Amino acid sequence: MIFNRLFCNRGILIQNFRQHGWIGILYLITLLFSLPLYIGTQYIEVPLEITSLFQANEIHLLFALTFPVAIALLLFRYIQTGAPADLYHSLPLQRKHLLTMNLLTGYVMILLPIWITTGITGWVWAVLDQPSYIFSGHDIWMWGVTMSIFSLFMFTLTVAVGMCIGQSILQGLTVFGLILIPVIFWGVYELHLQRYLLGFTYNNSSNFNMEKTSLLFRMSSMGYYPPEWGELVIYAAITCILFVLCYVLYARRHVESATQAITFRIVKPIFRFGFMFTLVLLGGAYFTRIAPEGSGVWGIFGYLLGGVVGYIGAEMIIRKTWLIWSSRLLPRFAVYGIVAGLILYIPVADWNGYANNVPSKENVQMVRLGGDHYIYVNDKSVKLDDSPFYSDTPGYVDAVLALHQKIVHSDLPLLERVRNQNSGQNRSNDEYVLIDYQLNNGKTMTRRYQIPEEEFRQELAEVKQWEDYKSTTYDTYALDEDVRSIGIRSSLNSERKVFISDPKLIREFKELLKSEILNQTYEDQLSSWESFASIEVYQDYLDEASSKEKLDRPSHSVSYQFKASYGRLMEWIKQNNLYDQLTVSAEDMASAQFVKQEIDNPGKYRMVYPEPNFVDVNIDGNRQVATKNKKIISDLLLRQRTGFYTDQDTVYQIKLNSVRGSNIYMMLKEEDLTEEMKAILVNQ
Question: Whole-model pTM?
Fold first, then answer.
């Protein structure tokens, strides 16, 4: 009787559902429209097999982020306004009883719509004769569990935040700020580290995954990577911790703190510094990006400006006025500024040894260049085992260490290179070097650099001559495994292709291709000429559910380039009557058109590649030169440039007009032109 009267007070429950039940009904309607109705009314000619209902439609993920927050804001609105707070807390109920009623109301308004939707989805799945999506009952149940856990997490987080915030609008903004802060903070802080810390591995630092720290970003990838039990257990555990925290905070919250920005004194410095430091990072990132070339002062100015604006903004939010001046303002700002400066400076300081740290050969067990390798198996990204890509060959380890030593002792313009990279620019002769060391103490040391090729040519050539490098970089591991078929497609005309399915021919082709890859010279690897063809090697992979049964279709393929320098492989396809099926002859082409393209933007590198519109639309209005000379057309069919970065160059965009079929677009530098080509361009 006492339990029913206090913990399940009927009047509070009825009042909550009468006043706010409409939002639970709206949550149910939106879920029904976004899942069972969507699945039941969609028509796809070939049914799509999915492994998660999030692959069918992701809009309900947005509802799981917003509706629980709105429910929490409405149910606990009374603690954020003066008169309702006095009224509710004057009732003959203890705070823990009042909190329990409101939490229970919120949980019912969240869970009931989700599980009604889950049941109706199961019914739709059972009665549909020709479904557009094929999935299992387990997928339906997992959808319900996932939506329940994520929705309860957002609801409980909002309630816990509301105990520390005295305004509903600020409470909602703070909730979404908290689920974004890990991404904003670490993402922008990474920009700071890559700007000022040579060798920082910003794409793979400490295996940090931003999606795992922000539910908002995680939901954006739910269709590609459905949640697993481990992830759900973590969110459920955090929800339980927040649940307990709600009781602890509510017991200590003062009724008169309603309408205040921050209700607990201890939270104010945390909020103040967090808000300030976020703007410090954003200011530094923005001003570094827009800074003139070679200027590092702009970034420092951005940090200072962000700190000032962030601190003033935090004070105005906390005090709810722009009149914030006091004798304690500047000393407190100085303390926060020093702490922020130390957080920015210590990781990038020379004395911490990160930038100049090159392990000794005695401490290196194995080394790898190029980073992790991933493949797509059954539409999932799967990381391959690291061990085949590491090498303990003494000479190769020595070569990598020598390259690393020269990099750390060179004066690389780190700031400018990173700024160019972030803005989509690059240099035609820059190379990325990603080094992973397996040390004798069991740890892994990783460094990443962007270096000019001409300055490090000798060291790069020494590294790239080793088979250990070539086998890792060019994925020759796939040529040692079972192959179902091999596809070869002409680089000139994608319609010209052949497939090899005979086991004997596949075996011969694999052996020759691997031999050609491993015998490449450094110059072959740097070749700027387009490949003769592209090669696709289709492999069989074992199904995850059964390690003995192979899939009914190829679930993975690896791509290779068929370079013109692969002489023995070229001879092999000729002997097996495949060459003519891949080549385009001059007789197939009616004419060739040349359009000159001048690139003159010193310091602003851009990618130059064959552009059909440059010839067809004549974007720059340049003079076009056409020829039917078969000798020129034959030479063009044998030479074409790959795309490259440049800031100053002269190239010719070229179109080969086909007698029948697709036209061919290509590009040559001015120095690539033959004498016959130069003659017609000058004469006309």
Answer: 0.74
